Amino acid sequence: MRETALTIVENKEGLLITGINCFDLDLTLHCGQAFRWEKNENGRHHGVAFGKMLDIRQTAQGVLLSDTSTADFEQVWRGYFDLDRDYAALCDNFCADTGLKTAVEQFPGIRILKQEPWEALCSFIISQNNNIPRIKGIVTRLCERFGNPLGQGDFTFPSAQKMAELNTDDLAPLRAGFRARYMIDAAQKVASGEVKLTELENAPLDEARCELTKIKGVGAKVAECTLLYGCGRVEAFPVDVWVKRLMEELYPQGLPPCTNGSQGIAQQYLFHWRRQQ
DNA sequence: AACCAGGCGCATA
DNA sequence: TATGCGCATGGT
Q1: Is A277 (CB) below 7 Å from strand C?
Q2: Buried-most residue among A19, A99, A104, A193 (CB within 10 A)?
């Protein structure tokens, strides 16, 4: 983790951030790690995270954030977009491996979003045996129905405390299917403190995995996704059907050493690369 | 109309 | 410990 030299300039359109290396906003928001971003015309992306809405787009000058403030940029978006991680150095390391080199060169600029732990957990419970458009639909209905309104049709992601008060019948309108009871169980265990999500950021990885799999509907894959996307654990390595195929074909002995410590980031490049065939 | 989708729980051996 | 099947829902 290194301080990168970001420049923040306020203009009439919002906050212009320059000096970000290795950042493709479109890829990052729509590569299947987050489910609450919509791209509209003019290449603007609109979404909500950490209870804040954001309008963001990438131009030749840099990355332009609208409807936000410098305070929110520092407190929320800087961390969310992982802007203080040196992806150039990371990708440089990855390129020691020819497969990863191809993936990185073909899709440069993918970053791992640091999402809220509860949102990541709940979203990836919904993701199981499901496809991305439908995952987005379920998450959207969940937020509209049980989140707090932010105005202009935006809603926060509902808290675990709020969802712990609900039952599976309440979730029926979401059409989440068999996943509804898993969502309720997760909400109850998080709200009660039986599973302490904030402690997973620093716990030994195996211990963190073990904690998460206490929740019904959370197996190895969902636990790993929660750790990677929600707890900042970039060494977590989710293996879905795409990555499984890829591992069997390319890395039967396991990931190359150049990914050590950042296996989850390598995974995101490999996942996207393999899916684009 | 069968098959698939960023899996998991459960039964069976 | 290891496999196989059912699961809700919706899109091809």
Answers
A1: no
A2: A104
